[in-house]
Amino acid sequence: MTTFDRHTERAAEAGDTELMLRRVLDLVNAAPKMPLSSTVRLEKDEVVELLEEAVERLPDELRQARWLLKEREEYLAKVQREADDILAAARDRAERIVQRTELVRESQRLSRRILDEANEEARRLRHEAEDYCDQKLASFEIQLQRIMKTVHGGREKLQIAPLATPGAPAGAGIVDAEMDSGEVFFDQDQG
């Protein structure tokens, strides 16, 4: 069983996008360095497959966040309907007992208080749901930015050190590429 298979199996068991992204970071951080160089060697297929699987899992988590928003909207609609029902009931009652002014005033106060409480509860729930979704999206954004930086850095490193041509002595391709591009590659291990 390859390292990739073990990572994929563990990630599939957990079913967590963040875990998948952390495994990609672990692969990048644990990648062996090339001899006499600070450049790391990565198995592109492993990293690409892990990233693709993480991207495939993101819609599930976003769908869960949307479900939470829908549930919140349904709750708000239910609370609004209840508030409307209470308000309508209070109006009906007030009309029937118009002679009793004090009772009319009391029912109006009660309906306003209930409506205000329902609106406040709905506002609180809306803010909590928005905060939760914002936190999740911010977490995804941070993870994706880290991965993008890692991938971008890896691609830059790959562009700096081209592969040696077949039949040429080891390291000749790097020197030739440096001469052609005008750039000079300094190895941190050289004096």
Report on the structure:
This protein is mainly alpha-helical and 191 residues long. Helices cover 77% and strands 0% of the residues. It has helices at 3-14, 17-29, 44-96, 101-160, 172-181. The longest helix is centred in the C-terminal third of the chain and has 60 residues, at 101-160. The two termini are 41 Å apart. The model has no long low-confidence stretch (mean pLDDT 76). This is ATPase. It comes from Candidatus Aeolococcus gillhamiae.
Keywords:
single chain, 191 residues, mainly alpha, 5 helices, 77% helix, rod-shaped, ATPase
Strands, helices and their partners?
Elements: H1 3-14, H2 17-29, H3 44-96, H4 101-160, H5 172-181
Helix pairs in contact: 1-2, 2-3, 2-4, 3-4
